[in-house]
Request: fold
Amino acid sequence: MTTDNLKEQAHVDVQDPRWAALDAAQQSQLEVLQANEADGETVGGWKLGMTSGASRDAFGAGFRPFGFVLASRIRRSGSTLWWDSTVATGSIENEVCFEIGETITELVTPESVRETLKGLAPAFEVNQIRIDTAASNEERLVDNLSNWGIVVGEMMAVPADWSQQQLKVSLLHNADGVETVRAEDHIDDHFVSIARLSNRLLRFGRRLEAGQKVITGAFGRAREPKHGLWSGDFGALGRVHLRIER
Reply:
């Protein structure tokens, strides 16, 4: 199969001249990452943005930008986050987290990337507002799509017959329901998203490496979450918990 066929099958972006400014901003984001790495940080994972809900295609039809997750910002389910002194302003979002089992060094399809996955888990993304809400898309990219870190629940092997269309995700605060969202018609196919991410990273000289975590888009969101216990209920995938203290 040719490179062009692989790209088409994986639903990944090509070097479209309409996205030149966004691609330049994506490269600037990686320069920020390099500065973090020079300070001793390592990449613990990646996110793919603009994949769900009202944010779909927000940067342009089919454009799916990536962001990095620092290893020092990956927390286990049940952790406590002191919000005011750590994040200050932001949100938490329910997301499915995948763990990469094999380092990916070539273009992949949604079908082949599934074979490289070690598992999946319920998770939260913690977002931090660091720039003006009226910032340009390019500025949002350089700002790493607002990512502060992630909270990851217990990993399980990807079920052979698993379909995200059956997935229903609930956000809870102190056991009280806040929001429930069904995957169907809400979020891009997770395996398409991981293939897009992997192939796009290769174009920028990066790759998905074994052990890294990947989040693929938000289900529910709590802006400026109140103190207390926040939980994400992912049905058969389990739950993730984060205690917010202020």
Remarks:
- The two ends are 54 Å apart (CA to CA).
